[in-house]
Amino acid sequence: MTxxxxxxxxxxxxxxxxxxxxxxxxxxxTLCAGWTTAxxxxxxxxxxxxxxxxxxxxxxxxxxxxxxxxxGLTARPYPEVVGKFRExxxxxxxxxxxxxxxxxxxxxxxxxxxxxxxxxxxEWEPRALPRDLDDMLWRRLKAGGRLFFRRSPVGVxxxxxxxxxxxxxxxxxxxxxVTGEAQELMLFGFGRQDHARVSLDGDPDAVALLMKARLGM
Length: 217
Known about the structure:
The chain is an alpha+beta fold. It folds into 2 domains: 3-118, no CATH class; 131-212, Nonspecific Lipid-transfer Protein, Chain A (2-Layer Sandwich). 54% of the residues lie in helices and 9% in strands. A 4-stranded mixed β-sheet has the order 2-1-3-4. α1 runs antiparallel to α5 (78-87), α2 (37-49) packs across α4 and α2 (37-49) packs across α5 (78-87). The two termini are 23 Å apart.
């Protein structure tokens, strides 16, 4: 996939998620525990526009400050927050200054959060993704699978449905084989086990442990 295509997919996911935010309003559920659509929209704006607070998303001792900034955004008018997300990052942020960073980081981020909103609603169905985007997700899984599954208490082999492609995500015994489309495997690897359309083959106790594991970044 070219950088231009990645940028196109990042823009498309941003636009589609923004439209869904507008459609559902601020109080709709998401798959992010305890977060409504208003909370998730505020989170996305913080990570792009508030460099001073974004580190707390992944650094535990900075998390209280990040939460306070996010709570402040959540309290602002919802259309304003969604509008800031729709606009994208300002030019002075790393996403605006470093060519390709938006596509590199946000394509998967936005896809995951788009599905966090879609799959928290009734009667959702998986989307058919463009082939090049599906291929990119599979490449990211092969490269990052060991990071996503590092906390798994059992071994994990990812198998891409409809192909003979496999990737070892965690070398351990017993192992579970997780089969699905690339987007489903990505969602599973980011801790959305209960909402990923995959099949799991292995010892039932190992499967149960994997379903409960804290996966993702």
